[in-house]
Write a structure and sequence with these properties.
Blueprint: H1 27-43, E1 45-48, H2 57-67, E2 72-78, E3 99-106, H3 116-122, H4 126-134, E4 140-141, E5 149-154, E6 160-163, E7 169-176, E8 180-181, E9 184-187, H5 198-205, E10 213-215, E11 222-225, E12 231-234, E13 237-238, E14 243-251, H6 260-267, H7 272-276
Antiparallel strand pairs: 1-11, 2-3, 3-5, 4-14, 5-14, 6-12, 7-11, 7-14, 8-13, 9-10, 9-12
Helix pairs in contact: 1-4
């Protein structure tokens, strides 16, 4: 099989291991981890530029193209928490601030054993390295069968408004950018496991530049992000080329599952496991 076609290969074959020697203990690996930990401490976000070697990107793009028809396209209005309106609250409250959302998610069950995108997630060295970067003692692959490895697909006019993630640790791989737009904006550490900080969320929704950072990712870049606590969005796209981003999710418990309401919004369907695990959370935050 040619090196430029990684489908079916182990995840290690896709990664620039000279730049990021994550399989080998030693000073080089320690230096990479130290940089990631500092970035995460500073803003809840760290990036490994060129994590996937450029020669493999065409095959990853081709994989996205093959399954793009299975993506759940959704145009609706949502708040930052994917919850219903709360009419008893003031109209300016974040729970009552709804924005247009228009993009598509390709669910995890579309990425099987022959998937190069999934191969990175299941590479034995990958999760332990991410865990060390995050310095977490409780760390597991996300237990949701529709959401552990997904691809976010966005086309011209699409965007993803301000929101918090359901799972604590999200790792994203930029595969293909749109011709324009699609910038990642975030407000780090805006809430904590015990404090929703609605006042701070309201400031971000009002566009306070003091609380908002912007990040432009190139294809092949890997991002580690604490999205459960950092409000974030993707700005609207333009041009003919779709944006593809693989999302690898991790959680504190192996049985963490998305809520039925949010799962249906994102993927257009719900499995029995989503109802069975509804309401089980490790924190009291609004989803």
């Amino acid at each position: 099989m040619p090196q430029s076609d990684p489908v079916g290969l182990q995840g290690a074959a896709l990664v620039d291991l000279e730049r990021y020697p994550i399989e080998q203990c030693g000073p080089a690996r320690d230096a990479v981890l130290a940089g990631l930990r500092q970035a995460l401490a500073d803003g809840g976000c760290a990036v490994l530029k060129g994590f996937v070697r450029p020669v493999h990107l065409p095959a990853l793009i081709a994989e996205c193209e093959r399954v793009r028809g299975a993506g759940h396209r959704n145009c609706n209005r949502t708040n930052a928490y994917f919850t219903q309106d709360r009419p008893e609250l003031p109209s300016t409250h974040p729970l009552r601030r709804f924005y247009d959302r228009s993009n598509a998610f390709i669910a995890a069950d579309q990425f099987g054993a022959d998937s190069a995108i999934r191969a990175i997630y299941e590479w034995p060295a990958f999760a332990p390295f991410i865990q060390e970067a995050l310095q977490e003692t409780a760390f597991h692959r996300y237990g949701d069968p529709l959401a552990d490895v997904i691809v976010n697909m966005a086309e011209a006019g699409n965007g993803f408004p301000w929101h918090f993630d359901t799972n604590n640790y999200t790792v994203t791989l930029a595969i293909q950018n749109a011709e324009g737009g699609g910038d990642f904006e975030y407000s780090p550490g805006l809430r904590t496991p015990t404090d929703e900080n609605y006042a701070g969320v309201e400031r971000v929704l009002d566009g306070d530049p003091a609380l908002i950072r912007q990040l432009v990712l190139a294809p092949g870049d890997l991002q580690i992000f604490r999205g459960r606590y950092s409000l974030h969005r993707v700005t609207p796209l333009h041009g003919l080329r779709p944006r593809y981003v693989a999302i690898y999710s991790f959680a504190e418990r192996p049985d963490m599952i998305g809520s039925p309401e949010r799962t249906r919004q994102l993927y257009g369907r719900v499995l029995p496991i989503h109802y069975a695990y509804a309401g089980r959370r490790v924190d009291p935050l609004v989803d």
